[in-house]
Amino acid sequence: MATNKDLRINGMIRVREVRLIDDQGEQKGVVPTLEAVRMAQEKGLDLVEIAPQAIPPVCRILDYGKYKFELEKKTRESKKKQKLVKMKEIRMQPKIEEHDLQFKAKHVREFLDEGNKVKVTVRFRGRELAHTELGKVVLDDVLALLEDSFVLDRPALMEGRFMSMIVSPKVKK
Question: pTM value?
Answer without folding.
Answer: 0.55
